[in-house]
Amino acid sequence: MGELTRKYNWSENLLGEPDQWPKSLQTTVSIILSSRFPMFLWWGTEMVQFYNDAYRPSLGGSGKHPTALGQKGKECWPEIWEIIHPLIHQVQTTGISTWSEDQLVPIYRDGGIQDVYWTFSYSPVLGDDDTVEGVLVICTETTQKVVYLQELSDSKKELEFAIDAADLGTWDLNPITNQFTSNGRLKQWLGLKPADEIDLSVAINVMHEDDRNSVSEAIRWALEPAAGGWCDIRYRIIDPLTGTERIVRAMGKAVFDEQKKPIRFNGILQDVTDQKKAELRERAAMEKIAENERNFRNTILNAPVAICILKGPEFVIEIANERMLKLWSTTGPAIMHKPIFEAVPVVRNQGFETLLNKVYQTGDSVNVQEYPVQLPRDGKLEQEYVSFLYEAESNSKGEVTGIIAVAVLVTEQVIARRKIEEVVNARTRELAESNKNLERSNADLGQFAHVASHDLQEPVRKIASYASLLETITENEASLNYLRKIIDAAGRMKVLIRDVLVYSQISNQNPLFEVVDLKQVVRDLQSEFELLIEQQQARLDYQNLPTIRAIPQQMIQLFGNLLSNALKYNRPGVPVIIGIRAERVGDEYQIQFSDNGIGFEQSYAEQIFHIFQRLHRKTEYSGTGIGLAICKKIVENHGGTISATGHAGEGATFLVRLPVL
């Protein structure tokens, strides 16, 4: 730097040639260049810079050097000028030196901004007139030191974190004074405050009394040179504040001086309570597994059905109870721990190989009922029937390791059932023949009802017609009375024939179900019965009627018959009130028809749905006694039910239940 300073073209610098410099500047620069301690100088109002070889490395391999020599301070240090200029100005104005230790002052060097730490002092340099003309920087870069201390601090924090994460207590025993030092966790376990001193006696007193002698002996032995200084022991400590018992593991190492005397004994204390409990739980679990295996084995041996366990792809017999041995007609010593097809060769080639292999390869169960098999009986093979279940046995990885076989001999049941089946088949054939005869009778009856109803309507019409003609030409009052009775009877006969025909056709119909709006059904019927409703001064109130899937025409018949009955069986002089309510309950619709008519005794609630059943004389109320029977058939056609409740003189209620389709 001395050579660079001498060769520098100072004539172009605002300071001029060196021989024109103030004596104080010449002297200061001379001191800087000859010093082996890093120094830097700012001079004058523009803070022209000088520095020595010791300072040179701080500028890096490339960057500010050698441009910084003779350069103005603000031009050289733009990246940190806001940091250092206040300090420079402070020294210039006050004449008082500054001191900074391990100060972060980032600078540009080696191609980029670097975090650099410095310990430095800014000192005033007086000019020839005893005023502050320059600022001398005596400094040393401490970046490596700071980084090292930071790494050391980080390492310490990592160690503390590791200790905390491992839930460890740390201890350090002075064997000479018996004084402990420890971290906060160990003091907490000992029932002490963080600032409390720890004496060896305190640490021993919190130990379980049954463990104190063994711990004291372990410490004494660890402090013997012959032991190598190592200690590793488990014991129990009792929290003096809470009484909580904790199992700990103490691991330590003693350090000896040249005279083989212990001078330090430190280590860690680990809480292994959970680990110990886990070991105990694991031991208990293993004992439980062993007990379960014993119980399972006993269950198999004492089971009321034949059971065996076959192991591996060779199906080695591991265990078989007496019932299974009896089924095979063999003994335990003869077959145990042998492949089944070797131990019981009689079961070969009867399909069991395929079934067992399927279970072993797929893990799927096989359940077979009444399987025919040839088994040895009294020295010869006999046909037997066996129902059995093969269940895969797997390990913890889900791999099939064996098969549990359960078998039940059902030969007697099969023979008995077959005898019953023969009887049942015979009776079934008889019943089928009876059903055919019944179907023929029903068909004949239906045909008869259809023909009869149509054939009967013709003479009834003629009787009514001729009686009406006679009525117009007859003057005798008695004869007229008889003719009116004939006409009335013919009319009732005509209605009866019509209703019988409707009733017979309902069962024979097989119409398609459609979407039916029950509100619209009631509206249409209300229009149809408009005149009768007006005559009876009736009020019809219907609410919440749903749209359902049903046979449209039959819904019209059902609602029409119930409305007709409500209008017909009224109390004289009392306006008729008819209510229809519906709600969905679970998987069915419940539709309630109620009126305020004459009602009926509850004892007749079933009878009124039978065909031709009437509760009143024909002269009192018209009708054939078929209407409610038709309602019942319609509801049953839809898979529902109909019931009635009533009281004489207080009205009736009909409840229709239809499934939601």
Return Rg in Å.
Answer: 58 Å
Strand order of the largest sheet: 10-9-8-13-12-11
- Assigned CATH class of the largest domain: Alpha Beta
Gap between N and C termini, in Å? 106 Å
Major β-sheet annotation: 6 strands, antiparallel
The structure class reads alpha+beta
Could you say which overall geometry the principal axes of the C-alpha atoms support? elongated
Helix content: 40-55%
The CATH topology of the largest domain corresponds to Heat Shock Protein 90
How many helices does DSSP assign? 19
Describe the 3D structure:
This protein is 42% helix and 27% strand. The chain is of the alpha+beta class and 661 residues long. Strands 10-9-8-13-12-11 form a 6-stranded antiparallel beta sheet, sandwiched between helices. Strands 2-1-7-6-3 form a 5-stranded antiparallel beta sheet, with helices on both faces. Strands 15-14-18-17-16 form a 5-stranded antiparallel beta sheet, with helices on both faces. The longest helix is centred in the C-terminal third of the chain and has 63 residues, at 411-473. It is elongated, with a radius of gyration of 58 Å.
Task: List descriptors.
5 domains, elongated, 25 strands, 6-stranded antiparallel β-sheet, Beta-Lactamase, alpha+beta, 5-stranded antiparallel β-sheet, single chain, 661 residues, 27% strand
Task: Describe how the helices and strands are arranged.
Elements: H1 2-7, H2 23-34, E1 39-43, E2 48-51, H3 73-76, H4 81-94, E3 98-104, E4 107-109, E5 112-114, E6 117-126, E7 132-141, H5 143-165, E8 168-174, E9 179-182, H6 184-189, E10 198-199, H7 200-205, H8 212-222, E11 230-238, E12 245-256, E13 262-271, H9 273-301, E14 306-311, E15 316-320, H10 322-328, H11 332-335, H12 340-343, H13 352-362, E16 366-377, E17 380-394, E18 400-409, H14 411-473, H15 477-508, E19 514-517, H16 518-528, H17 530-535, E20 539-543, E21 547-550, H18 552-568, E22 577-585, E23 588-595, H19 627-637, E24 641-646, E25 652-659
Parallel strand pairs: 20-22
Antiparallel strand pairs: 1-2, 1-7, 3-6, 4-5, 6-7, 8-9, 8-13, 9-10, 11-12, 12-13, 14-15, 14-18, 16-17, 17-18, 19-21, 22-23, 23-25, 24-25
Helix pairs in contact: 14-15, 15-19, 16-18, 18-19
